[in-house]
Structure formats: C-alpha cells, structure tokens
Amino acid sequence: MRKETNLGNNQPVRLYKFIALTFLLITIALFCLIVFMSSKEAVITITTKSDPIDANKYVVVGPRGEWSGVVTSTIVMMEKDFNPTGNREEPAVATGVVTLLNESNENQPLVATTRLLTPEGILFRLKDRVLVPAGGTVEANVYADQPGAGGNIGPVEKFTIPGLREDTQKVIYAKSVSPMSGGVKVIGVLSEVDVKKSEEVMLATLEEQGKAFLSKLNISTNTVYKVIESKFENSATVGTEVAGFKLKGQATVLAVFFDNANVETEATTLLSKRLVDEAENLSEEGASHSIVLDSYDLAKGTAVLQIFSNGKVKLDPGSKQLDKMVFYGKTKDEVRRYLLSLDHVQSVDISFKPAWMRTVPHVADHVQVIVKEVE
Questions:
Q1: pLDDT exceeds 50 at position 1
Q2: pLDDT tens track for 241-283
Q3: Which pTM was predicted?
Q4: SS3 label, residue 326
Q5: CATH topology for 93-182?
Q6: Which of 18, 277, 315, 330 could disulfide-link to 344, CB 3.0 to 4.6 Å?
C-alpha cells in the first residue's frame, strides 16, 4: 500500500500564521507607541516680574512750537508776621475781633477802651471808637485788659458792656466767633534757620496766590506753573532777641498754557520706544507722567517743557520667544537656561509626564506654557 505525505499543504498554513502573528505584534507595538506618544506632556511654568522704565522728552510751547500755547506771568506780594524759635515766654496782651450788636432803635457810639465783659469775668476793651448802628452790627478790634495767658479765650456767645445802663446792656452787646490769642509771647533769638523757614512758607503761599490769579485766565486746561523770581525783606536782624518779626515777600509766577489733549498718549509712546525687543510690553498698571518747566523766554512767548514718563515693562506672554515650538525636543536644563536668559524672568519650573521623559514633546497640544507675574 502506498503512503502519501501532504507537506506542501501544511507549509502555507504556517506562513499565514506567521504573517498574522507578525501583523498582530506590529499592531500592538503601534498601539503602544500611540498611547505612549499621547501620554507625553510638558508643563513649563515661567514666573516673571515687571521692571521699572522711564523716558523723557523736551517740547517747545508757543509760536511755531511743537505745542501751541501761551506763556505769561504775574507778580504777587504779601506781608506776614512770623515768630522765631523761642526759648522763653513772657506775658503779652491777647487780641481779637468781636461783633457788636444793637437791637435798639438808636445808634450807639462806643469810645475806645470801652469795657467788654465775658460771663467768666474776663475783661476786654475796644481798641478804637465805633458806632453801632440801630438794628445792626459792626465788627471791632479788642484787647485784653490784663496781659497773660488768661486772655487767650475761645469764642464767646455774649459779652456785656458794663459802661451802659442795665436795661441797655440787654439790647446792646457783643459776641465773638474766633478765639482771642497773643496772651503769651515767645521770645527767641532770630536765626538764619528761622528766616529761611519763614521765606519757604511765604514762597509757597505766594505761588498759590499766583496760580489762583493765572488760572482765572482760562486759556487752557493744561498748565504748568513755576516761581521764576522772588525776593524778601525781613524787619528784624539775625542774632537779636525778638518776639516776632515781619516778613515782606514778592514773587513772579510763570504760567505755561498749552493745548495738547494727548499728553498721556505721548507719554506712553515715549515708554514704548524704550522697549528692548518684541518680547516686552508695557504694564497697564503703574504708569505715570509729569511735566516740568525747563526754560522760558517771556519776550518771545515761548517755553520748553520736559515730559517725564514712568512705567513698568514686562515679558509678553504672546511673544515668539515663548512660542511652544521653541521648546520642542529640549531637555529641562536647556529650557531653563533659555528662559532665564530672557529679561524679566525670575524663575522657571518644568514638569514632564511620564516622569522618566527627557525632552519636550513635538506636539503642540502636549506642551503647556504658563506665565505668572509677581509683584
């Protein structure tokens, strides 16, 4: 009997199994690769801090200047009493002002030194003769009958006038709304410091008076003021012992009126020009500007103003330097070194998932860049 072996038929079956198994392994490997690639993630956290920036510019105001405007000035004067830095006290006569009231139908004359008495028995006297009109009032200067601190009293609701008949005192009397003062004077040696301080105080007052007068011109909403000249005359001699001294002052206050409604915009533009590169932008907070007088020519009606702008500059999160593609394939150290080389970067934190991953993925969806700003 003849036996037949079917080896040719088994060989294709083995081949098919091998091919199927290989395809399965490849499929599993591809699946694992896809899972691996999709699980890769890099989170880059950048901490930044704004840095101060400033800029300035000179602008000519006046005829044919960069800004149209008017340059003008005014002279103001005043006289005021000051006291030196005292080291001992002496009694003095307190003074003040009262309002005399006449509720009768006849005018009432009152001579100088007429007595006015408070409810507490403190006596004052009229400094000058006055006539109190019927049904009316009049203000008068008074002084304390006795020197000393006792004359320093507050407002008084009613002074009686002892020199009048008792029934007349009910309809003719006085009252005060301001305290009496000067019952004690401080004696001191006038020094250069006393004079300088008093001149500084007066100069500030003169400047405010000049501003108030010039502002009434209403030439423009934008104005710069400056005292360009001042002089003072002191009634006392430095080194002498005095209770007080009189100071006369005069100042010339200059005003520059200009019609630029976009000062803030121009100030911001100045700061923008100071940005180093496109990776920076101006912070919306902390920006300020000021304008000061640099020079002037009253004869020509011109002035030079200087604009000072101050702000903060920070790293722009949307700049090309922080684009995700910049980080593709870089290690943590490479990313850190790159970011710390940029201005305004304070610190960098980088995390990979899975933890054993060594480089930033090349897929944008798997890279997260976070920018945090600190004060």
A1: no
A2: 888 899 999 999 999 998 777 777 787 787 777 776 667 777 7
A3: 0.59
A4: helix
A5: Elongation Factor Tu (Ef-tu); domain 3 (2.40.30)
A6: 315
